[in-house]
Write the structure tokens for this entry.
Amino acid sequence: MAVMERATETQSAYLLVRRAILAGELLPGQRLVEKELSERFRVGRAAIRTALARLEQEGLVESEPFRGARVRTIGEAEAVEILEARAALEALAAHHAAQKATPEQAEALWAIHRQMEERHRAGDLLGMSELNSLLHRTLVEISGHQTAARLIEGLRAQGVRHQFHTILVPGRPQQSLEEHRRIIAAVAAHRPEEAEAAMKAHLGGVIAALKRIGRSTL
Amino acid sequence: MAVMERATETQSAYLLVRRAILAGELLPGQRLVEKELSERFRVGRAAIRTALARLEQEGLVESEPFRGARVRTIGEAEAVEILEARAALEALAAHHAAQKATPEQAEALWAIHRQMEERHRAGDLLGMSELNSLLHRTLVEISGHQTAARLIEGLRAQGVRHQFHTILVPGRPQQSLEEHRRIIAAVAAHRPEEAEAAMKAHLGGVIAALKRIGRSTL
DNA sequence: GTCAACCATATTGTCAACAATCCGTGCGGC
DNA sequence: GCCGCACGGATTGTTGACAATATGGTTGAC
């Protein structure tokens, strides 16, 4: 990731700021002063400027005229909305994936699932979370649905912070493993409707977990 | 629309270019030379530049480094993808709308539907198409689901050109009216699942019409 | 006649300076 | 002490010039 592909400064700036936000180096609500970012990432202010415009369009940043930009804060209500939208789109992707998946692709999904089980036994929640992302991404990729892929990627970026927490709900990891198992089984067996329903159920579970967190921390 | 709300030039530029694309004044595939647009819309090149960046993020424009931007061409396959994604998200919105709709809101939907029937009797397909957009937008508004609303708006913008054609398929208007009737009925009766299914069926019908066009014109 | 290298032009990417706007601060009036 | 108000610093918005890059045509060799 450090190579950055000899692109124009503008693209670098976009990727750099985006990554910093997703990595939590720039916190929600924090002001994004153009000059500061410009110095921090060693790119011109113009590059930062268009990067911020793109990030605003993407929903990661909000800005007001003459008052600057800041990292958008996503509350629990919006996090639920984001997950609902993701559920709708990933269910669509699962549907397509179930129609198109080759045996090799199905096996790749099972392989990821086995790794998740392993991490679960090892008590490695962070590892599970990363594999979870990989699993979902792989499924979307198998679906070949580029429009859904683009939208889902944007939603995932917005939800990173909250998504991370749901795995801490007691009993959630086991449930998640079981839900994933059903999704993969449906995809591997070429049963689109079943895959779609299973994906909806899965993200419904995540939403429920998120809401439970909300109630407990209030 | 001529007033433009005393905003910054950048915002105006974004809205102007966007509107020109949606209105078909800038055709798919057409090059978007910054200087030309700058003169045409009487705004600085910097404003055009960030407008193009935003539009690219939105999926209405594509650009390559040092080679400029052009209006993105959306083929039939992608148009289908867009409609599928819309179907998933609008079904979600319909679900929420059915939970939240007040009697007044339901009546507003029926009113739009009656106008559509009227236009249909008058043979005014363009008017129907506009009312169709209004109906969908109103439904999304009722749902109160801002995340879905944002995504749907973007998808609708990308699909304008194709969407317009589906209404020309023989028998499609009547079918559309019936599908809308079911959606509204389900929303008015507070039956989320039914509303969701009806919306999916409706946009499924649009997709089928679009595919039929594809087959006939090839 | 064909092909490759080269050059002119058009266009985008970058930069630095300037103008416009917002925000906090201190001043004066009451 | 409290409120309105002007002022100054900080930050964004805009402009114009310049550098970097792609494109298309031209020239020359073969």
